[in-house]
Amino acid sequence: MKHLRFDFNNMFSHSVGASGGVTDSELSSMRGQIAKAHKHITHILKSEENRIGLGLEWTALPRQDSRQIQRIQELGDEIAGSYENVISLGIGGSYLGLKAAQEALCNPYYNDFLQARNGRPRIFFEGNNMDPDTLSVLIKNLNPKKTFVVVISKSGETTETKAAFAVIEKWLKENIGDKYGRQIVAITDPKSGTLRKKVESEQSLDGLDFRSLPVLKGVGGRFSEFNVGLLHMAIVGVNIREVLDGAASMLRRCSAPSLTKNPAYMYAALQTILYRKKGKCISVIMPFSERLKSTADWYVQLLAESLGKKYGRRIRVGSNGVERWENDTEKIVNVGRTPIAARGTNDLHSIQQNNIEGEDNKTVTFIKVEKFNEDIEVAGTGDFLEGRFYSELISVAEEATEWALTMEGRPSCTIIMPEISAFLWGELLFFFEMATAIEGELLDVNAFDQPGVEGYKNYMYYKLGKTDIPQEVAENIRKHPLIKRPRYIL
Ligand code: PA5
Q1: Mean of the per-residue pLDDT values of the chain
Q2: Is 290 a catalytic residue?
Q3: Quick one: CA torsion of 61, 63, 68, 70, rounded to 10 degrees?
Q4: Which overall architecture, per CATH, does domain 58-240 show?
Q5: Residues 190-208, mean pLDDT to the nearest whole number
Q6: Does the Cβ of 92 fall within 6 Å of ligand 1?
Q7: What is the pTM of this model?
């Protein structure tokens, strides 16, 4: 069985120098913190109450009930066999993982060629923005009778998804009539939220309308691909079992207590040292594969929302060992590496210049694919390219980029994927999820909340006249309007 490998040679001072790299003694000095983080996470994972209460139930997803997976598979096959198009509505964790899975594990140009998608439905992602241009063009061009809709929102309240769903629902209703609800599946919280209420009321009238799947308790948006993303995998023909087996295999590897045996711990430890001690506050994630571009976007959300935090964490432990985490408003930390998604070789002609010669504040994480599904020989150039294969070109380009960064004393590491398979992609996502959880421990922040996104939401709600926003929030907005002085606008 092939597994992911993590090559961290170029993170060390012996490779990139002491100002840009981690020394052996710096790594050794992290052992205590890693041991503490390991003990804490292991303690949490043992208790379902802790896992659910703190938002770590995603760690149980690789081993979820196979009957539920079978049901999802059947539903996916039914949709794929009956419709030409699927509109997938969702944002953040209810969108990015689905797109990443499809791009990584289906053929490139999936939507463009029937053969490339093995006769399965074309996929249109919406509800991930509020740009009226895209949604308008979509509903003007799609045939509603041949279109199925999957709406995903854990909370059931997210404005982007809610608005898009309202538009799509109206469009379906007007074109299909009473039975339009049979063309909808909702993936949402099993109990709360307006989407769940809608499901319940429609289901009470007709059991075939608004079928639904639950977002499991304690599984937060950006950690939910192995929950909310499964139906999408079934629709586009990705092998769910293999993805979950890959995640389970990485869970086993990432349960090892030893820093030198656990890839997620090593990744988290090295990134934390470089961030805290060497000022590497920007993290470029650069797969050398077109198919992993959206996986890089997925990781950007994971890192930014999980670790970009204002407050440190206060842990309260009940007598039964059940924990509660609070944001300690007296401990302002303002931490978090800034993630940037790039892709090789495309961005060697853009971001790479800055990586090499711009501010010396970055680490680069490459994802290198060893074996591609296809290969093409270059012929007719009559020069150094003659007879070379594309797989060789991209591999040499990746090695060259590592070398160029190393020569400039700039740290990088490489995640090696023997190939892009469902199993290895499952490993990859789970590796990043575990590494992020451990980094949260090392920074002592809550990696599973996102209070920072509330500010803009509240302002929007206020402006749009939502009635239930707290009075003090409304008062704050009234007192501090945005000031736009004309003389500062040219
Ligand atoms: O990670 C998160 O929790 C968020 O990014 C959510 O996924 C995003 O806000 C969408 O939320 P919901 O699924 O509730 O619509």
Answers
A1: 97
A2: no
A3: 120
A4: 3-Layer(aba) Sandwich (3.40)
A5: 94
A6: yes
A7: 0.97
